[in-house]
């Protein structure tokens, strides 16, 4: 290409050459499983996409009882090389953006098949023989004479089901009057138009994404802590996510702290437990893991003291802290639970075999399903209720509610009402697995039941 050509033409050629060839462009929109253009495309957790009809056979996932969410009880093995992992149906869904892109591309192709110049090409499929040997496809390569330039013709060939995903294509003009430059210009125009229709759809999606991001930003501002900022810290007692904590604020420094978190609108501070023993030299007097509390109700007393009702939002770990006007402020790291699929892998691994007959109680717990661990804990609470246990007094239930059936919440509820040592209850805070927390609470129950015997 000469250097004194039209700049717009140069730009267009460069855009086309950004792809290997027309075949590479069309392959972007083909399903690697059936080789047709994507139909109802689904994007899997591994990031690969395929047609919804190409989803592998489903099977019942064994040894998984948490979480009880639609679609998580069924799974399939990922058909893509480089993955091969089990995916839950609940983690897969129609890729809305990709689906809309495929619709606009199909509409564009259908329209321009009739409008494009009558350029006839012979398309000959060049099979990828290693993939042929590994599959059951017809080993005979196919060929067609189609119109519309290389990109349009290649897409049509794929839409006819006559172009395997791994195959390449050889193009031969039909007729001596067709020049290569004519075909190339047609392909450049096609690629430019495809980019425009795709970009328009993506921009529409970005408008929606902007709204979602704005809402997400508000939620993040409400529910997270800026790790570069400072969170007011209150070493006092244990607190848990989703559980209420009732406080009587009387010390001047914490009265000041509460007044500031109310005035700045955050209504948040971090609750920490004091160390039950003398800390090592230089270590803080509080434990490193705590819970961010949100002030739901505040009652000011005439003498400046206050009674506040808070609810736990999420857990955190103190990275560093310093004193400001007598109370601690800290840089913290939010502590979230492991992803659901890791939770499922943990349960499946631990429960796929039965506990040995001579196993101790702790080992037996390892082999119980997550739902069985919860049932064991709920059964213990019901038995205690039937025996009128003081820790289940009506006043306690009025404050903390009835025992929740949600495995993620129950351990925090039990720790809030059960009269055992704070050091044992604290072990729930560093735990980042629902199953792990249920095993901790189940071990408390085992010990209490042994003590009663």
From TrEMBL:
One of the record's GO molecular function terms: ubiquitin protein ligase activity
UniProt superkingdom: Eukaryota
Domain Lon N-terminal: 228-449
A matching Pfam family: LON_substr_bdg
Protein name per UniProt: Lon N-terminal domain-containing protein
């Amino acid at each position: 290409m000469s250097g004194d050509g039209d700049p717009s033409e140069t730009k267009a050629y460069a855009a086309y050459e950004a792809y290997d060839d027309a075949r590479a462009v069309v392959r972007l929109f083909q399903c690697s499983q059936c080789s047709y253009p994507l139909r109802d495309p689904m994007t899997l957790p591994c990031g690969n996409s395929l047609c919804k009809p190409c989803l592998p056979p489903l099977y019942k996932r064994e040894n998984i009882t948490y979480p009880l969410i639609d679609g998580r009880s069924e799974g399939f093995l990922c058909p893509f090389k480089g993955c091969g992992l089990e995916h839950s149906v609940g983690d897969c869904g129609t890729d809305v953006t990709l689906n809309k892109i495929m619709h606009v591309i199909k509409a564009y192709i259908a329209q321009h098949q009739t409008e494009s110049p009558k350029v006839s090409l012979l398309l000959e499929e060049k099979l990828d023989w290693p993939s042929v040997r590994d599959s059951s496809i017809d080993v005979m390569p196919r060929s067609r004479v189609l119109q519309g330039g290389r990109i349009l013709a290649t897409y049509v060939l794929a839409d006819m089901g006559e172009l395997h995903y791994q195959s390449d294509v050889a193009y031969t003009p039909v007729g001596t009057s067709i020049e290569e430059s004519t075909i190339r210009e047609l392909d450049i125009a096609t690629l430019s138009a495809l980019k425009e229709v795709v970009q328009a759809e993506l921009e529409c999606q970005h408008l929606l994404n902007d709204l979602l991001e704005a809402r997400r930003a508000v939620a993040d501002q409400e529910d997270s802590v800026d790790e570069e900022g400072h969170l007011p810290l209150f070493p006092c007692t244990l607190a848990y996510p989703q559980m209420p904590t009732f406080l009587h604020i009387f010390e001047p420094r914490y009265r000041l702290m509460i007044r500031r978190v109310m005035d700045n609108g955050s209504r948040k501070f971090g609750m920490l437990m004091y160390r039950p023993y003398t800390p090592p030299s230089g270590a803080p007097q509080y434990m490193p893991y705590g819970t961010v509390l949100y002030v739901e109700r505040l009652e000011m007393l005439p003498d400046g003291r206050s009674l506040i009702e808070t609810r736990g939002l999420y857990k955190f770990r103190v990275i560093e802290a310093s004193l400001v006007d007598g109370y601690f402020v800290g840089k913290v790291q939010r502590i979230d639970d492991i992803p659901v699929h890791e939770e499922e892998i943990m349960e499946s691994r631990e429960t796929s075999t039965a506990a040995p007959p001579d196993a101790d109680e702790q080992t037996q717990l390892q082999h119980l399903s997550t739902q069985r661990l919860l049932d064991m804990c709920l059964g213990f609470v019901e038995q205690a209720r039937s025996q009128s246990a003081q820790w289940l007094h009506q006043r306690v239930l009025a404050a903390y509610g009835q025992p929740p059936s949600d495995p993620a919440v129950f351990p925090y509820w039990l720790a809030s009402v059960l009269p055992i040592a704070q050091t044992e209850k604290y072990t729930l805070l560093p735990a980042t697995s629902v199953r792990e927390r249920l095993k901790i609470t189940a071990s408390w129950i085992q010990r209490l039941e042994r003590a009663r015997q």
